[in-house]
Amino acid sequence: MSESIKGVNPVIASAMEHFASRSGELKSIAVPEWNTTIYYKELSTFQEQSGIMQYHQQGKIVEALVETIIVKARKQDGTKMFNPADKLILMTQADPDVLVKIATALNSSNTDYNVEETVKN
Q1: Which among 42, 38, 43 is positioned nearest to 69, based on CA atoms?
Q2: CB-neighbour burial class of residue 64 (10 A; exposed 0-12, middle 13-18, buried 19+)
Q3: What string of DSSP letters covers 88-121?
Q4: Does 34 fall in a domain?
Q5: Which residue range(s) make up the domain with 87?
Q6: How many structural domains compose the chain?
Q7: Does some domain include residue 16?
Q8: Contacts 24+ apart (CB under 8 A), 100-107
């Protein structure tokens, strides 16, 4: 058991270690239209997914796509690239095709949520 989680319920410690082992390194997607590279982890937490899932359940697909980008997109150092205040700008002043491309890549490991299929519906 890791020293950083000593004293924690052993089952919780195992769950945390398992998640950390699956989180992996940052992956990246080049976004030439924005002259940048977006980094992300394939696996995200329920906390990170909750807003995305709420929008999806409400049928607010555009909001779900943008929320995906806000929640998952990272800089090379792993810090968040966007904040919630960027949502309106992304929704109203960014190319939808680029947003779909980014959200699709960020959701590449999530087989339960296919961005392209959802956008078609």
Answers
A1: 38
A2: buried
A3: HHHHHHS-HHHHHHHHHHHTTT-TT--HHHHHH-
A4: yes
A5: 25-120
A6: 1
A7: no
A8: 100/65, 101/29, 101/31, 102/29, 102/31, 102/38, 102/69, 102/73, 103/65, 103/66, 103/68, 103/69, 105/29, 105/38, 105/40, 106/29, 106/38, 106/40, 106/68, 106/69, 106/72, 106/73, 107/68
The CATH number covering residue 40 comes to: 3.30.2220.20
- Position with higher pLDDT, 118 vs 75: 75
Integer Rg of the chain from CA: 16
Write out pLDDT tens, residues 85-109. 999 999 999 999 999 999 999 988 5
pTM for this model (two decimals): 0.76
Residue 4 lies in a domain: no
Residue 13 within a domain? no
At residue 27, what are phi and psi to the nearest 5 degrees? -100, 170
